[in-house]
Amino acid sequence: MSPSRETPRPEPSAAVANEPSSPEVESILALLAAQVGEPWEAVDRRQVASAIKRHRNLAAAMRKVPLANGDEPSLTFAPLYEGERVAGGDR
Questions:
Q1: pLDDT value, residue 4
Q2: Domain span at 20
Q3: How many domains does the chain have?
Q4: The pTM is what?
Q5: Which of 7, 58, 71, 88 could bridge to 67 as Cys pair (CB 3.0-4.6 Å)?
């Protein structure tokens, strides 16, 4: 893609975009702006704020799901220690 072509920006969903911005969202935006070091256009700021709000809403919804003591991923990580081999493996 040539530098002169502008990437189309998706519009944030109306439900998330219309939510009022919280102090937490504003502080995350300020932190990100400081890390980027360049001023953002208004549309970029709205898009990033919308993504932050969306992720916060998704995280809140995930926290509402009750988990039982046995709920865990079906695959658990078991590290190999020095000198151990994978069963059936050549490595």
A1: 47
A2: 14-64
A3: 1
A4: 0.55
A5: 71
